[in-house]
Design goal:
451 residues; Aminopeptidase; binds calcium ion; globular; Alpha-Beta Plaits; 2 domains; binds N~2~-sulfamoyl-L-arginine; four-stranded antiparallel beta sheet; binds zinc ion; eight-stranded mixed beta sheet; alpha/beta
Protein backbone atom coordinates (compact mmCIF):
# COMPACT_ATOMS: atom_id res chain seq x y z
CA UNK A 1 0.00 0.00 0.00
CA UNK A 2 1.40 3.38 -0.99
CA UNK A 3 1.70 6.16 1.59
CA UNK A 4 -0.75 9.01 1.15
CA UNK A 5 0.24 11.74 -1.31
CA UNK A 6 1.90 14.46 0.80
CA UNK A 7 -0.07 17.69 0.90
CA UNK A 8 1.46 21.09 1.47
CA UNK A 9 -0.29 22.96 4.27
CA UNK A 10 -1.95 26.17 3.08
CA UNK A 11 0.00 28.43 5.45
CA UNK A 12 3.34 27.37 4.05
CA UNK A 13 2.29 27.51 0.45
CA UNK A 14 2.14 31.15 -0.53
CA UNK A 15 5.59 32.44 0.26
CA UNK A 16 6.90 33.96 -2.96
CA UNK A 17 7.51 32.75 -6.45
CA UNK A 18 9.99 30.01 -5.61
CA UNK A 19 7.60 28.27 -3.27
CA UNK A 20 4.78 28.73 -5.76
CA UNK A 21 6.86 27.16 -8.51
CA UNK A 22 7.81 24.27 -6.25
CA UNK A 23 4.16 23.81 -5.39
CA UNK A 24 3.31 23.70 -9.08
CA UNK A 25 5.92 21.00 -9.63
CA UNK A 26 4.55 18.99 -6.71
CA UNK A 27 1.01 19.35 -8.01
CA UNK A 28 2.10 18.24 -11.47
CA UNK A 29 3.79 15.20 -9.95
CA UNK A 30 0.70 14.43 -7.94
CA UNK A 31 -1.52 14.70 -11.02
CA UNK A 32 0.81 12.38 -12.93
CA UNK A 33 0.52 9.71 -10.27
CA UNK A 34 -1.70 6.76 -11.21
CA UNK A 35 -5.36 7.30 -10.41
CA UNK A 36 -5.48 4.63 -7.75
CA UNK A 37 -2.90 6.29 -5.53
CA UNK A 38 -4.66 9.64 -5.72
CA UNK A 39 -8.22 8.54 -5.22
CA UNK A 40 -8.26 5.54 -2.91
CA UNK A 41 -7.64 6.19 0.76
CA UNK A 42 -4.89 3.85 1.89
CA UNK A 43 -5.86 1.48 4.67
CA UNK A 44 -3.70 -0.15 7.30
CA UNK A 45 -4.11 -2.75 9.97
CA UNK A 46 -4.33 -1.55 13.59
CA UNK A 47 -4.57 -3.08 17.01
CA UNK A 48 -7.20 -1.30 19.10
CA UNK A 49 -6.90 -1.81 22.85
CA UNK A 50 -9.92 -1.24 25.08
CA UNK A 51 -13.09 -2.63 23.50
CA UNK A 52 -14.21 -5.76 25.32
CA UNK A 53 -17.99 -5.99 24.77
CA UNK A 54 -19.91 -6.63 21.56
CA UNK A 55 -21.49 -3.17 21.88
CA UNK A 56 -18.05 -1.56 22.12
CA UNK A 57 -16.84 -3.52 19.08
CA UNK A 58 -19.98 -2.48 17.19
CA UNK A 59 -19.07 1.14 17.96
CA UNK A 60 -15.58 0.56 16.58
CA UNK A 61 -17.05 -0.93 13.41
CA UNK A 62 -19.39 2.07 13.12
CA UNK A 63 -16.36 4.27 12.35
CA UNK A 64 -16.23 2.57 8.93
CA UNK A 65 -13.35 0.24 9.81
CA UNK A 66 -13.65 -3.50 9.40
CA UNK A 67 -13.19 -5.54 12.56
CA UNK A 68 -10.93 -8.40 11.47
CA UNK A 69 -10.18 -10.16 14.74
CA UNK A 70 -11.67 -10.05 18.21
CA UNK A 71 -9.57 -10.69 21.30
CA UNK A 72 -10.29 -10.23 24.98
CA UNK A 73 -10.07 -6.47 25.48
CA UNK A 74 -8.82 -5.62 21.99
CA UNK A 75 -9.59 -5.94 18.28
CA UNK A 76 -7.66 -5.86 15.02
CA UNK A 77 -9.14 -3.54 12.42
CA UNK A 78 -8.51 -2.40 8.85
CA UNK A 79 -9.00 1.36 8.58
CA UNK A 80 -7.94 4.44 6.69
CA UNK A 81 -6.44 7.37 8.61
CA UNK A 82 -9.78 9.10 9.22
CA UNK A 83 -11.42 5.93 10.49
CA UNK A 84 -8.47 5.22 12.80
CA UNK A 85 -8.78 8.74 14.17
CA UNK A 86 -12.48 8.17 14.88
CA UNK A 87 -11.57 5.01 16.80
CA UNK A 88 -9.02 7.00 18.83
CA UNK A 89 -11.73 9.55 19.64
CA UNK A 90 -13.83 6.74 21.12
CA UNK A 91 -11.11 6.68 23.77
CA UNK A 92 -9.21 3.59 22.66
CA UNK A 93 -5.50 3.29 22.07
CA UNK A 94 -4.67 2.54 18.45
CA UNK A 95 -1.40 1.00 17.30
CA UNK A 96 -0.31 0.45 13.69
CA UNK A 97 0.39 -3.19 12.86
CA UNK A 98 2.80 -4.39 10.19
CA UNK A 99 1.35 -4.51 6.67
CA UNK A 100 0.77 -7.69 4.67
CA UNK A 101 3.86 -9.90 4.43
CA UNK A 102 6.28 -9.62 1.52
CA UNK A 103 6.23 -13.04 -0.15
CA UNK A 104 8.09 -12.01 -3.29
CA UNK A 105 11.24 -14.01 -2.42
CA UNK A 106 13.06 -11.13 -4.06
CA UNK A 107 11.55 -12.13 -7.41
CA UNK A 108 9.26 -10.01 -9.52
CA UNK A 109 5.64 -11.15 -9.42
CA UNK A 110 3.58 -11.91 -12.49
CA UNK A 111 0.69 -9.46 -12.84
CA UNK A 112 -2.52 -10.83 -11.27
CA UNK A 113 -0.71 -13.71 -9.64
CA UNK A 114 0.24 -14.60 -6.10
CA UNK A 115 3.78 -13.78 -5.03
CA UNK A 116 6.25 -16.63 -5.66
CA UNK A 117 6.36 -17.86 -2.05
CA UNK A 118 2.53 -18.25 -2.13
CA UNK A 119 2.40 -19.91 -5.56
CA UNK A 120 0.24 -22.75 -4.24
CA UNK A 121 -2.69 -20.36 -3.87
CA UNK A 122 -4.91 -20.25 -6.96
CA UNK A 123 -5.62 -17.00 -8.72
CA UNK A 124 -8.96 -16.77 -10.58
CA UNK A 125 -7.77 -18.37 -13.83
CA UNK A 126 -5.95 -21.13 -11.97
CA UNK A 127 -8.98 -21.87 -9.78
CA UNK A 128 -11.27 -22.07 -12.83
CA UNK A 129 -8.78 -24.37 -14.61
CA UNK A 130 -8.57 -26.62 -11.55
CA UNK A 131 -12.36 -26.83 -11.30
CA UNK A 132 -12.70 -27.59 -15.01
CA UNK A 133 -10.13 -30.37 -14.62
CA UNK A 134 -12.05 -31.85 -11.66
CA UNK A 135 -15.28 -31.81 -13.68
CA UNK A 136 -13.55 -33.43 -16.67
CA UNK A 137 -12.24 -36.14 -14.36
CA UNK A 138 -15.53 -36.82 -12.55
CA UNK A 139 -18.14 -35.91 -15.18
CA UNK A 140 -20.93 -38.07 -13.78
CA UNK A 141 -20.44 -36.60 -10.31
CA UNK A 142 -19.98 -32.88 -10.97
CA UNK A 143 -21.14 -30.22 -13.38
CA UNK A 144 -20.72 -26.47 -13.67
CA UNK A 145 -23.14 -23.64 -14.25
CA UNK A 146 -22.25 -20.05 -14.95
CA UNK A 147 -24.80 -18.32 -12.74
CA UNK A 148 -23.82 -14.76 -13.71
CA UNK A 149 -21.03 -12.25 -13.96
CA UNK A 150 -19.09 -10.02 -11.61
CA UNK A 151 -18.99 -6.24 -12.04
CA UNK A 152 -15.89 -6.53 -14.24
CA UNK A 153 -17.42 -9.39 -16.21
CA UNK A 154 -15.81 -12.48 -14.72
CA UNK A 155 -17.91 -15.64 -14.56
CA UNK A 156 -19.44 -16.51 -11.22
CA UNK A 157 -19.98 -20.25 -11.20
CA UNK A 158 -21.79 -22.87 -9.18
CA UNK A 159 -20.54 -26.45 -9.22
CA UNK A 160 -23.16 -29.11 -8.59
CA UNK A 161 -21.95 -32.33 -6.95
CA UNK A 162 -24.26 -35.28 -6.50
CA UNK A 163 -23.83 -39.04 -6.67
CA UNK A 164 -25.10 -41.53 -9.22
CA UNK A 165 -26.15 -44.02 -6.55
CA UNK A 166 -29.56 -45.03 -5.27
CA UNK A 167 -30.18 -42.51 -2.52
CA UNK A 168 -33.22 -40.29 -2.65
CA UNK A 169 -33.51 -38.94 -6.17
CA UNK A 170 -33.63 -35.30 -7.19
CA UNK A 171 -37.18 -34.12 -7.58
CA UNK A 172 -36.61 -32.83 -11.11
CA UNK A 173 -40.21 -32.99 -12.35
CA UNK A 174 -41.42 -31.93 -8.93
CA UNK A 175 -43.62 -34.97 -8.38
CA UNK A 176 -41.29 -36.60 -5.88
CA UNK A 177 -40.55 -33.45 -3.92
CA UNK A 178 -40.80 -35.24 -0.58
CA UNK A 179 -38.12 -37.71 -1.67
CA UNK A 180 -35.87 -35.05 -3.15
CA UNK A 181 -32.26 -34.92 -2.12
CA UNK A 182 -31.76 -32.12 0.38
CA UNK A 183 -29.40 -29.54 -1.07
CA UNK A 184 -26.47 -27.90 0.73
CA UNK A 185 -24.71 -24.73 -0.36
CA UNK A 186 -21.09 -23.72 0.19
CA UNK A 187 -20.11 -20.15 -0.68
CA UNK A 188 -16.59 -18.74 -0.70
CA UNK A 189 -14.60 -15.55 -1.03
CA UNK A 190 -17.07 -12.73 -0.44
CA UNK A 191 -14.12 -10.78 0.90
CA UNK A 192 -11.27 -10.28 -1.55
CA UNK A 193 -8.33 -10.80 0.80
CA UNK A 194 -9.71 -14.06 2.23
CA UNK A 195 -7.99 -16.23 -0.37
CA UNK A 196 -7.84 -19.36 1.79
CA UNK A 197 -11.59 -19.74 1.26
CA UNK A 198 -11.14 -20.40 -2.47
CA UNK A 199 -8.69 -23.14 -1.54
CA UNK A 200 -11.44 -24.54 0.73
CA UNK A 201 -13.75 -24.84 -2.31
CA UNK A 202 -11.03 -26.55 -4.36
CA UNK A 203 -10.37 -28.93 -1.46
CA UNK A 204 -14.05 -29.92 -1.25
CA UNK A 205 -14.24 -30.66 -4.98
CA UNK A 206 -11.05 -32.78 -4.84
CA UNK A 207 -12.20 -34.58 -1.72
CA UNK A 208 -15.68 -35.35 -3.07
CA UNK A 209 -14.30 -36.38 -6.46
CA UNK A 210 -11.54 -38.62 -5.19
CA UNK A 211 -13.45 -40.25 -2.30
CA UNK A 212 -16.82 -40.88 -3.92
CA UNK A 213 -17.19 -44.64 -4.32
CA UNK A 214 -14.36 -45.50 -1.92
CA UNK A 215 -15.09 -43.59 1.30
CA UNK A 216 -18.41 -44.76 2.75
CA UNK A 217 -19.29 -41.50 4.46
CA UNK A 218 -18.65 -39.35 1.39
CA UNK A 219 -20.43 -41.81 -0.89
CA UNK A 220 -23.50 -42.01 1.33
CA UNK A 221 -23.78 -38.24 1.52
CA UNK A 222 -23.30 -37.59 -2.19
CA UNK A 223 -25.88 -40.29 -2.98
CA UNK A 224 -28.45 -38.58 -0.77
CA UNK A 225 -27.63 -34.85 -1.07
CA UNK A 226 -27.05 -32.26 -3.78
CA UNK A 227 -24.02 -30.12 -3.00
CA UNK A 228 -23.64 -26.68 -4.56
CA UNK A 229 -20.26 -25.00 -4.37
CA UNK A 230 -19.90 -21.34 -5.36
CA UNK A 231 -16.11 -21.07 -5.15
CA UNK A 232 -15.64 -17.37 -5.80
CA UNK A 233 -18.22 -14.66 -5.10
CA UNK A 234 -15.74 -11.82 -5.49
CA UNK A 235 -13.35 -12.60 -8.35
CA UNK A 236 -12.74 -8.91 -9.16
CA UNK A 237 -11.71 -8.07 -5.61
CA UNK A 238 -9.55 -11.17 -5.37
CA UNK A 239 -7.65 -10.35 -8.55
CA UNK A 240 -7.26 -6.73 -7.47
CA UNK A 241 -5.85 -7.82 -4.13
CA UNK A 242 -2.99 -9.74 -5.75
CA UNK A 243 -2.56 -7.68 -8.93
CA UNK A 244 0.68 -5.91 -8.05
CA UNK A 245 2.53 -8.76 -6.39
CA UNK A 246 2.15 -7.21 -2.96
CA UNK A 247 -1.08 -7.86 -1.13
CA UNK A 248 -3.42 -4.88 -0.85
CA UNK A 249 -5.63 -6.08 2.03
CA UNK A 250 -8.67 -5.39 -0.16
CA UNK A 251 -12.08 -6.47 1.18
CA UNK A 252 -14.90 -5.21 -1.03
CA UNK A 253 -15.84 -5.77 -4.67
CA UNK A 254 -14.55 -3.38 -7.36
CA UNK A 255 -17.75 -1.60 -8.30
CA UNK A 256 -17.38 2.17 -8.69
CA UNK A 257 -19.51 4.39 -6.46
CA UNK A 258 -21.38 7.38 -7.86
CA UNK A 259 -19.89 10.71 -6.87
CA UNK A 260 -17.02 9.10 -4.97
CA UNK A 261 -13.49 8.09 -5.80
CA UNK A 262 -13.76 5.16 -3.38
CA UNK A 263 -14.61 1.86 -4.99
CA UNK A 264 -16.38 -1.15 -3.72
CA UNK A 265 -19.31 -2.52 -1.77
CA UNK A 266 -18.87 -4.93 1.14
CA UNK A 267 -20.71 -7.93 -0.31
CA UNK A 268 -21.43 -9.24 3.18
CA UNK A 269 -23.47 -6.11 3.98
CA UNK A 270 -25.45 -6.04 0.73
CA UNK A 271 -27.93 -8.95 1.20
CA UNK A 272 -31.63 -8.24 1.23
CA UNK A 273 -32.56 -8.93 4.85
CA UNK A 274 -32.69 -6.08 7.34
CA UNK A 275 -30.28 -4.28 5.02
CA UNK A 276 -28.74 -1.31 6.79
CA UNK A 277 -31.15 -1.76 9.70
CA UNK A 278 -29.06 -1.70 12.79
CA UNK A 279 -25.73 0.05 12.70
CA UNK A 280 -23.97 -3.04 11.39
CA UNK A 281 -22.86 -1.53 8.08
CA UNK A 282 -22.01 1.88 6.64
CA UNK A 283 -23.63 4.27 4.18
CA UNK A 284 -20.26 5.88 3.34
CA UNK A 285 -18.64 4.73 0.14
CA UNK A 286 -15.18 4.89 1.70
CA UNK A 287 -16.07 2.51 4.49
CA UNK A 288 -14.73 -1.03 4.58
CA UNK A 289 -18.30 -2.09 5.33
CA UNK A 290 -20.12 0.07 2.75
CA UNK A 291 -23.51 -1.54 2.26
CA UNK A 292 -24.14 -0.34 -1.32
CA UNK A 293 -26.97 1.83 -2.65
CA UNK A 294 -29.66 -0.81 -2.16
CA UNK A 295 -29.95 -4.49 -1.24
CA UNK A 296 -28.35 -6.60 -4.00
CA UNK A 297 -26.87 -3.49 -5.65
CA UNK A 298 -23.64 -5.45 -5.99
CA UNK A 299 -23.98 -7.65 -9.09
CA UNK A 300 -22.18 -10.51 -7.35
CA UNK A 301 -24.77 -10.58 -4.54
CA UNK A 302 -27.67 -10.39 -7.00
CA UNK A 303 -26.24 -13.29 -9.01
CA UNK A 304 -25.92 -15.58 -5.98
CA UNK A 305 -29.24 -14.47 -4.44
CA UNK A 306 -30.98 -15.19 -7.78
CA UNK A 307 -29.31 -18.59 -7.85
CA UNK A 308 -30.52 -19.40 -4.33
CA UNK A 309 -34.06 -18.26 -5.24
CA UNK A 310 -33.90 -20.49 -8.33
CA UNK A 311 -33.64 -23.48 -6.00
CA UNK A 312 -37.21 -22.92 -4.84
CA UNK A 313 -39.09 -25.76 -6.54
CA UNK A 314 -42.86 -25.95 -6.21
CA UNK A 315 -42.73 -23.32 -3.52
CA UNK A 316 -40.11 -25.19 -1.47
CA UNK A 317 -36.51 -24.10 -1.03
CA UNK A 318 -34.41 -27.18 -1.82
CA UNK A 319 -31.29 -25.84 -0.06
CA UNK A 320 -31.52 -26.75 3.60
CA UNK A 321 -28.15 -25.78 5.01
CA UNK A 322 -25.13 -23.68 4.06
CA UNK A 323 -21.69 -22.53 5.07
CA UNK A 324 -20.22 -19.22 3.93
CA UNK A 325 -16.43 -19.41 4.27
CA UNK A 326 -14.38 -16.44 5.49
CA UNK A 327 -11.07 -15.87 7.25
CA UNK A 328 -9.86 -15.42 9.90
CA UNK A 329 -10.35 -16.20 13.68
CA UNK A 330 -11.35 -19.88 13.67
CA UNK A 331 -15.03 -19.43 14.40
CA UNK A 332 -18.30 -21.21 13.67
CA UNK A 333 -20.96 -18.49 13.60
CA UNK A 334 -24.73 -18.59 13.25
CA UNK A 335 -27.45 -15.92 12.79
CA UNK A 336 -28.63 -13.44 13.61
CA UNK A 337 -26.00 -10.78 13.18
CA UNK A 338 -28.43 -7.84 13.21
CA UNK A 339 -29.48 -8.32 16.84
CA UNK A 340 -27.75 -9.35 20.04
CA UNK A 341 -30.82 -11.39 21.00
CA UNK A 342 -30.69 -15.18 20.63
CA UNK A 343 -34.30 -15.32 19.50
CA UNK A 344 -36.13 -12.74 17.41
CA UNK A 345 -38.92 -12.60 14.83
CA UNK A 346 -37.84 -15.31 12.40
CA UNK A 347 -35.71 -17.18 14.96
CA UNK A 348 -37.57 -19.35 17.46
CA UNK A 349 -35.95 -20.98 20.44
CA UNK A 350 -35.96 -24.33 18.61
CA UNK A 351 -34.37 -22.74 15.52
CA UNK A 352 -31.68 -21.18 17.68
CA UNK A 353 -31.10 -24.39 19.62
CA UNK A 354 -30.72 -26.43 16.40
CA UNK A 355 -28.28 -23.84 15.00
CA UNK A 356 -26.28 -23.96 18.23
CA UNK A 357 -26.33 -27.77 18.57
CA UNK A 358 -25.02 -28.44 15.06
CA UNK A 359 -22.70 -25.42 15.25
CA UNK A 360 -21.12 -26.62 18.48
CA UNK A 361 -20.77 -30.14 17.15
CA UNK A 362 -19.03 -28.89 13.98
CA UNK A 363 -16.77 -26.68 16.10
CA UNK A 364 -15.82 -29.65 18.28
CA UNK A 365 -14.46 -31.34 15.16
CA UNK A 366 -12.34 -28.48 13.81
CA UNK A 367 -11.37 -26.78 17.05
CA UNK A 368 -13.04 -23.48 16.16
CA UNK A 369 -15.07 -21.40 18.64
CA UNK A 370 -18.86 -21.62 18.20
CA UNK A 371 -21.04 -18.55 18.84
CA UNK A 372 -23.81 -16.36 17.47
CA UNK A 373 -22.32 -13.90 14.98
CA UNK A 374 -23.47 -10.82 16.93
CA UNK A 375 -21.39 -11.98 19.90
CA UNK A 376 -18.57 -10.42 17.84
CA UNK A 377 -20.29 -7.22 16.69
CA UNK A 378 -23.52 -6.27 14.94
CA UNK A 379 -23.73 -6.82 11.19
CA UNK A 380 -26.68 -6.18 8.92
CA UNK A 381 -27.21 -7.35 5.35
CA UNK A 382 -24.96 -10.39 5.77
CA UNK A 383 -25.47 -13.56 3.75
CA UNK A 384 -26.20 -15.84 6.71
CA UNK A 385 -28.96 -13.54 8.01
CA UNK A 386 -30.50 -13.48 4.52
CA UNK A 387 -30.22 -17.21 3.92
CA UNK A 388 -31.97 -17.90 7.23
CA UNK A 389 -34.25 -14.89 7.57
CA UNK A 390 -35.43 -14.87 3.97
CA UNK A 391 -34.97 -18.46 2.75
CA UNK A 392 -35.03 -20.52 6.00
CA UNK A 393 -31.70 -22.13 5.14
CA UNK A 394 -29.61 -23.11 8.16
CA UNK A 395 -26.66 -20.92 7.25
CA UNK A 396 -23.36 -20.74 9.11
CA UNK A 397 -20.34 -18.53 8.67
CA UNK A 398 -16.96 -20.20 9.15
CA UNK A 399 -13.98 -17.99 9.88
CA UNK A 400 -11.00 -20.15 8.93
CA UNK A 401 -7.36 -20.18 10.00
CA UNK A 402 -5.55 -18.48 11.66
CA UNK A 403 -6.94 -17.77 15.11
CA UNK A 404 -6.93 -14.19 16.31
CA UNK A 405 -3.63 -14.35 18.17
CA UNK A 406 -1.69 -12.58 15.42
CA UNK A 407 0.80 -15.40 14.97
CA UNK A 408 -0.67 -17.08 11.90
CA UNK A 409 -0.41 -14.35 9.28
CA UNK A 410 -3.90 -12.84 9.50
CA UNK A 411 -5.51 -12.76 6.06
CA UNK A 412 -2.27 -13.99 4.46
CA UNK A 413 -1.19 -17.30 5.95
CA UNK A 414 1.62 -18.93 3.95
CA UNK A 415 0.60 -21.45 1.32
CA UNK A 416 2.20 -24.25 3.37
CA UNK A 417 -0.92 -24.30 5.60
CA UNK A 418 -3.47 -24.76 2.79
CA UNK A 419 -3.71 -28.56 2.90
CA UNK A 420 -3.90 -28.78 6.68
CA UNK A 421 -6.36 -25.92 7.14
CA UNK A 422 -8.78 -26.99 4.41
CA UNK A 423 -8.78 -30.68 5.45
CA UNK A 424 -9.43 -29.47 8.99
CA UNK A 425 -13.02 -28.69 7.94
CA UNK A 426 -13.72 -32.08 6.33
CA UNK A 427 -15.57 -33.50 9.31
CA UNK A 428 -17.58 -30.32 9.91
CA UNK A 429 -18.69 -30.24 6.27
CA UNK A 430 -19.76 -33.89 6.40
CA UNK A 431 -21.61 -33.24 9.65
CA UNK A 432 -23.59 -30.46 8.03
CA UNK A 433 -24.45 -32.73 5.10
CA UNK A 434 -25.57 -35.45 7.52
CA UNK A 435 -27.78 -33.04 9.47
CA UNK A 436 -29.18 -31.23 6.43
CA UNK A 437 -32.24 -33.46 5.97
CA UNK A 438 -33.49 -32.49 9.43
CA UNK A 439 -31.55 -29.96 11.43
CA UNK A 440 -34.01 -30.33 14.32
CA UNK A 441 -32.88 -33.92 14.88
CA UNK A 442 -29.92 -32.36 16.69
CA UNK A 443 -32.28 -31.20 19.46
CA UNK A 444 -34.37 -34.38 19.51
CA UNK A 445 -37.32 -32.81 17.66
CA UNK A 446 -37.28 -34.69 14.38
CA UNK A 447 -40.82 -35.95 14.84
CA UNK A 448 -42.14 -32.46 15.48
CA UNK A 449 -40.46 -30.71 12.56
CA UNK A 450 -39.44 -33.24 9.91
CA UNK A 451 -42.36 -35.55 9.23
O1 LIG B 1 -17.81 -9.09 9.18
C1 LIG B 1 -17.97 -10.04 8.40
O2 LIG B 1 -18.55 -9.93 7.32
C2 LIG B 1 -17.41 -11.41 8.77
N1 LIG B 1 -16.09 -11.27 9.34
S1 LIG B 1 -14.83 -10.91 8.33
O3 LIG B 1 -13.65 -10.68 9.17
N2 LIG B 1 -14.50 -12.18 7.42
O4 LIG B 1 -15.20 -9.81 7.53
C3 LIG B 1 -18.30 -12.03 9.81
C4 LIG B 1 -19.70 -12.25 9.35
C5 LIG B 1 -20.43 -13.14 10.28
N3 LIG B 1 -21.83 -13.15 10.03
C6 LIG B 1 -22.62 -12.21 10.56
N4 LIG B 1 -22.13 -11.32 11.37
N5 LIG B 1 -23.89 -12.26 10.28
CA1 LIG C 1 5.23 -20.98 0.29
ZN1 LIG D 1 -14.86 -12.15 5.45
Amino acid sequence: MRPPTPRTPRSRRLHGKVAAAATAVLLTLAMAAPAASRTEEPTRSYEVTGPRTAAQRTAVAATGASVDAVRRGSVVITADAAQAERVRRLGYSVRVLPGPPDRSDGRRAEPFDFPPADANYHNYAEAMAEINADIARYPSLMSKQVIGKSYEGRDIIAVKVTGTGTGTQPAGDGTAAAAARPEVLFTHHQHAREHLTVEMALYLLKEFGSKYGSDARVTKMLDSRVVWIVPDLNPDGGEYDIATGSYRSWRKNRQPNNGSSARGTDLNRNWDYKWGCCGGSSGSTGSETYRGTAPESAPEVKVVADFVRSRVVNGKQQIKAAIDFHTYSELVLWPFGWTYDDTAPGMTKDDHDAFAAVGKSMAASNGYTPEQSSDLYITDGSIDDWLWGNQKIFAYTFEMYPDSSGAGGGFYPPDEVIDRETARNRDAVLQLLENADCMYRSIGKEAQYCR
